[in-house]
């Protein structure tokens, strides 16, 4: 690096200005090409026909242009304008052009409507793969994508007329001409306890209703329609509300993460609504939407697992310390391999659950419990995973330009949304007790790997016994106290089974040793001696 010597008027070499030992940019990188676990799962679970589409999404999501749009969307948060300059109520949200580039790109690739627009085997799997790749750019933009996708089954079940009216636009691959759906369930006095909702729905002319009340969280105010819970004469019910007069957005939430996404508090002042489903069955109606958004919570967490893992490995390969690349340090290799294990386990389990959404009624029991189990586990673990990945970058990972702080801030959101940890765990407990076929279906899937690894066999025996014991007392304090333990053990059983059946021996053996065999520790980087860390790392981010 040259600097000007003003006394002599010439440029001289200044070693203090030379940039050394800094990691080159990761982009451009095709995010599918560098993820063999995802590619294999896509084919295995029925989505081979979508390989080209997924690869295209991976190439764009890993491009320099896309990474820059993600940075700009994060750095330019939304702004709510409640009134125009004359004092008229407008309730508009100003969004940066990069937000529209990201959201439009997701919709145009079918992330909000592919399985409904092209109902063929593997459609949910293909969508799931693209979701995990696009989600590595920005977690906030995936919220309206997910809600729009999940609104369709709720509309179909609740009203053929509403479904016929809105489904063509909700499933459109046109960002300009399509529609986006949202939801507004919780209120400030109740949160997850929806029975405490006080928003009212009064019957009006021609079967319509008028809503009065508030909602504490309303994600993405620019949505075209919202599914809203309100107290009707027949009890808590679900309604479809079009954005317009009567929806007054009070403020945007100042959130920990997903800062690119506007989330609002909204007052409902005489807004017109249409009943969806039966009066008094609002939770049952909207749960169809929630079940699908829980799948997307899993997929969003997979995005974070993968993004953190590849950033950490890339950094360690190019950064030198104490005379050698970081990746040659044994302690660092242990950490990186441990991160890679969870990333692959998350990928395989999420894609397996996505396949269950393609299989319809025959997979209903497995889908019911596996969604809740893996939503809990993948979303619960990802915060620690991203934190460890950030630490691999050292101080460089702690500055905004690395992208890791935004990833870290967003990591907890999927564990909070659509039922926090306790809600998900108690949901599993209820399923085990009231629908015993669900536990049987999950264990049957795990039993497909029986005999391949003694540690997995022992774990399957233990988890079956625990599930049977807790099934007899689902409402008891003891069972509820142990609910998270049951869910954790079920999640590990499914992940271990999938890895043993489908992953290379180095990956499966390390997972069973560290997660099932009792040899691993409680922090990342505690894999037992003898695991093939190099093979695990090179699979996670091929050279």
Properties at a glance:
543 residues, globular, 20 helices, alpha+beta, 3 domains, single chain, two-stranded antiparallel sheet, Butyryl-CoA Dehydrogenase, subunit A, domain 3, seven-stranded mixed beta sheet, Butyryl-CoA Dehydrogenase, subunit A, domain 2
CATH architecture of the largest domain: Up-down Bundle
Given as residue ranges, the uncertain stretches (5+ residues, pLDDT < 50) are none
> How many angstroms does the end-to-end distance come to?
30 Å
**Helicity range of the residues?**
40-55%
| Assembly context of the chains | single chain
Mean pLDDT: 94
How many domains? The number is: 3
Count of helical segments? 20
Shape: globular
Give the strand content: 5-15%
CATH class of the largest domain: Mainly Alpha
Using DSSP, what is the number of strands?
Answer: 13
Strand pairing plus helix content: what structural class?
alpha+beta
Radius of gyration: 24 Å
The CATH topology annotation of the largest domain reads as: Butyryl-CoA Dehydrogenase, subunit A, domain 3
For CATH, the homologous superfamily of the largest domain is named as Butyryl-CoA Dehydrogenase, subunit A, domain 3
């Amino acid at each position: 690096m040259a600097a000007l010597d003003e006394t002599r008027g010439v440029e001289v070499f200044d070693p203090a200005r030379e940039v050394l030992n800094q990691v080159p940019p990761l982009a451009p990188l095709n995010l599918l090409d560098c993820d063999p676990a995802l590619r294999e799962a896509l084919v295995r679970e029925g989505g081979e026909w979508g390989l080209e589409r997924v690869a295209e999404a991976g190439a764009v999501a890993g491009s320099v242009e896309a990474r820059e749009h993600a940075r700009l969307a994060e750095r330019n948060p939304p702004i709510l304008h409640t009134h125009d300059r004359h004092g008229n109520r407008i309730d508009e949200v100003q969004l940066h052009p990069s937000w529209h580039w990201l959201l439009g790109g997701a919709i145009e690739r079918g992330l909000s409507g592919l399985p409904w627009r092209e109902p063929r085997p593997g459609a949910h799997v293909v969508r799931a793969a693209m979701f995990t790749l696009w989600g590595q750019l920005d977690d906030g933009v995936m919220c309206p994508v997910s809600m729009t996708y999940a609104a369709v089954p709720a509309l179909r079940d609740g009203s053929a007329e509403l479904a016929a009216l809105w489904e063509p636009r909700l499933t459109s691959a046109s960002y300009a001409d399509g529609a986006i759906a949202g939801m507004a369930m919780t209120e400030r006095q109740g949160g997850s306890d929806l029975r405490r909702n006080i928003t009212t729905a009064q019957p009006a002319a021609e079967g319509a209703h008028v809503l009065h009340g508030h909602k504490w969280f309303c994600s993405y105010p620019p949505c075209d329609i919202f599914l809203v819970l309100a107290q009707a004469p027949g009890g808590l019910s679900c309604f479809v509300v079009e954005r317009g007069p009567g929806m007054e957005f009070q403020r945007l939430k100042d959130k920990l993460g997903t800062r690119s996404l506007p989330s609002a508090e909204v007052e409902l002042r005489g807004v017109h609504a249409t009943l969806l489903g039966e009066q008094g069955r609002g939770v049952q109606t909207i749960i169809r939407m929630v079940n699908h958004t829980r799948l997307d919570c899993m997929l969003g967490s997979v995005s974070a697992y993968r993004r953190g893992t590849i950033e950490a490995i890339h950094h360690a390969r190019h950064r030198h310390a104490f005379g050698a690349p970081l990746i040659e340090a044994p302690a660092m290799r242990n950490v990186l391999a441990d991160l890679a294990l969870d990333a692959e386990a998350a990928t395989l389990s999420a894609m397996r659950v996505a396949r269950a959404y393609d299989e319809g009624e025959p997979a209903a029991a497995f889908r019911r419990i596996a969604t809740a189990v893996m939503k809990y586990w993948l979303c619960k673990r990802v915060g620690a995973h991203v934190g460890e990945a950030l630490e691999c970058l050292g101080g460089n990972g702690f500055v905004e330009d690395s992208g890791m702080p935004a990833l870290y801030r967003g990591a907890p959101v999927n564990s909070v949304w659509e039922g926090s940890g306790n809600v998900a765990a108690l949901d599993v407990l209820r399923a085990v007790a009231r629908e015993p076929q669900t536990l049987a279906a999950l264990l049957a899937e795990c039993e497909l790997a029986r005999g391949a690894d003694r540690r997995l066999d022992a774990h399957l025996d233990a988890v079956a016994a625990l599930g049977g014991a807790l099934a007899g007392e689902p409402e008891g304090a003891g069972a509820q106290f142990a609910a998270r333990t049951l869910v954790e053990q079920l999640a590990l059983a499914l992940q271990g089974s999938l890895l043993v059946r489908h992953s290379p021996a180095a990956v499966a053996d390390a997972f069973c040793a560290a997660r099932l065999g009792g040899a691993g520790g409680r922090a990342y980087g505690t894999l037992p001696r003898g695991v093939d860390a190099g093979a695990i790392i090179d699979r996670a981010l091929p050279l």
